[in-house]
Each structure stands twice: as structure tokens, then as C-alpha cells.
Please model this.
Amino acid sequence: MNVDNALRTIELIRCASKAATAYRKAQRAVREADADHSAALAQLSHWNDHIRPRGGGDRACLEHGARLAAVREHREAEQKLRKAEAGLQRASATLQAHRPALNRYRTERIRRRATTVLLDRLADHPVDLIRAADLAIIQTSAGKDSVVAMHRTVAAAKAAGGLHKVRVMHCDLGSEWPGVPELARRQAERYGIPFRLVTPDGGFLGMVENRQMWPDAKRRLCTSALKRDPTGPVITSWVRELGLDRQAIVLNVMGVRGSESASRALKARLAVDNRTTSANRLVLTWNIIHKLSEQEVWEDIASNGLEYHPIYDTGLERLSCIYCVLAGPDWLILATRVCFALELPHPEIFAALERRIGHSFKQDFTLNAIIAAARMLDALDGPVTWRRGDALRRHLGPAAANQYLALTR
Ligand code: SF4
Model:
């Protein structure tokens, strides 16, 4: 497939869709401004027809005041209408410029479908995709999925002769397990690719303190405000460094897998990121390992000797914040017991914040209850213990674990 043509078509359709939406919006604005103008005109006519001659006492004074207000409102409505009409003219000119694409892809549904088909086919050609791109930015959490996504991106980039296009970015929220940013850096250094650490102001705990509320599944401000938003300026600076005089093609690589959750299963392997795409960059979110199972991820880690965080050896299956707002009680209890074993202060820090803001960490239970349950289990069973390689033993068996340990010693 001709990747350059496919990317050009995707951008053409995106711009045409944008122009069609802007035109519809401008039409709506004119309709609304026209209605406001008619109402203001009617009001003004009313006062012009019924106003009493001056000198008629308090009532006449009030009527004159009302007429003046109607004159002012009519003038404002007229200005608003003129502005809306000018906007419609501009939107109409832009629409005309995109007429060929709009004639070919007539409805929004057809445009969406065509884009999806093209993106899906592009996702089957990772090497060509990187060859056509100007940048491939890997957003890593340093977790198992991220490191495999990084390994596969680097392999495709090497095959494309485009390793120089690859960059790595990691957001440190200050609420992760110890050693995560250092691990993210080491994982990037293994391939010799540039690494950028992003540390959002205040981090996770600062955000909760400010809002006096924990995020939840419906309002995941921790990912939107602390992880997604700070990446925009980094992408901007990397695109600027390229010094291109045309639109840059940017691949935004994520370690998202479909089998992780129902919502992730619905995500496409490749999608236009309309939020960060602009006239000077077409940003495509690339879920490069979307089809992999958890088992396949561990197989990639084992066979390539990829460094993974020791927290996986404890039985925790995700390298998230120590206390993730999306986690269930069993997971949180185990995380707390691991904190006890590692003598980390996080349970007390998080529980103190919960008490201070008076908002429960989860709707149906508090962190205090989690900590109490963790203490009880520690008292019954003793502290949790683990050995390096336990994650691989669990997923691939002892032979694979031993082989990995020998390889990475
Ligand atoms: S790991 Fe959980 S708590 Fe941390 S940023 Fe992600 S969703 Fe939010």
C-alpha cells in the first residue's frame, strides 16, 4: 500500500470534515443571531410605537429608559449578526476549498468509515508507517506493556532505517512505585533513544489536595490533566525541532492492549488524535501491541531480556500508581501489604490525605479500611514475600524465568 497517499487522504478527509462541521456551526450561529436580532428589533419597534411624550412623569421616564435599553440591545444584536454572517462567509470559502473531498466522501459516516479502513490497513505496515512518519513518540509508563511496545517500535524503526525518529516520554506523577522513572530511562537507553521526563506540577497528590476529591473512573483527571495534557507541549517542541515547512507526521505510541478491558478492546490500533493534531502536525495514536495477550507480552519480555519492574513479582499485574483509583479492593490490599514489606510511607500519606479532604478514596470503601484489612492479613499470614522472576514463573513457568534471569544477570 502507498502509505504516503493513505496519510494524505486521511488528512484530506480530516480537514474536509472539520470544514463541514465549522460550516454547520457557522450556519447555526447565523440562525441564532438572526433570531436575537429579530427579537431586539421587535422590542425596539414596540417602544418606538408606544412611548409617551417626554415630561409624562415617572412612568414616561421608565419608558424612555426601556427604549434606550432596547436601542442598545438592537445595536448589539446587529453587531452579533454581522459577525456571524462574516463567520459564515469564511466557513463557506473553506468548505468550497474542500469541495472535491466532500463530493467524494459525502457524509460524516462515509468519511469516518474511509478513515477507519485506511488507518486499519496502515496499522498492518508498521515499518512503512515509521518510514513515512517524521517522529515516533513512545509514551511509556515503564510497565510491561510499554516496554514491549517500545521494543516493537524500535524493531520497526530499525527495519525502516528510522531509529533517529524515535523518542520516549514518561510522566512522573510522584505516586508510582519507587524506581519507575529510572526504569523508564534505562529502558529507553537500551536502544539509545532520547528520553524526556515530564513532571506535572503538584503531581497526583497535589491535584487531589487542590480538588479536595479523588479522581474516579468517570472523571479520570489523573490521566487527562496529569498525563495527557502535559504531553501536548512536548510534542510541540519535538515537532518544532524538526524545522519542517510542511505538516509533520507524528506517531504517538502507546502500550494499550485490547484484552485489558472492554473499553480498551474498542480502541483502534491506529487513530487520528484530533486533540493534538493541527495544521502543522498530523498525530496518530498507535496502539502497536493492541492485539497481544498478556501471555504474549511476557513471552516478548522473556525472549528479549527486557527489564521489567520488580513490582510484577509481588503478584500485582499492573505498574500503576501505588494506589490507583481504578483498582479493586483485593489489588489495593495487596499493594498496601507490598508497601509494608518495602517499608514505604505511602499508605499513611494517602490515608492522611483522605482524612484531610473528607472524601473517600473509592465510593464503597476508604483507604483506612484497606489498610486495616492489609494489617489483618499480614498478622494472619505474615508479610508478603517474592523473588525476582516470580512474574515470569507465574506466566511462563520456572524454566523461562531461569532463562530470563540468566540472560539479564
Ligand atoms: S495509574 Fe490509576 S490513579 Fe494513577 S494516573 Fe493512572 S488511572 Fe490515575
Remarks:
- The CA atoms of residues 175 and 321 lie 5 Å apart.
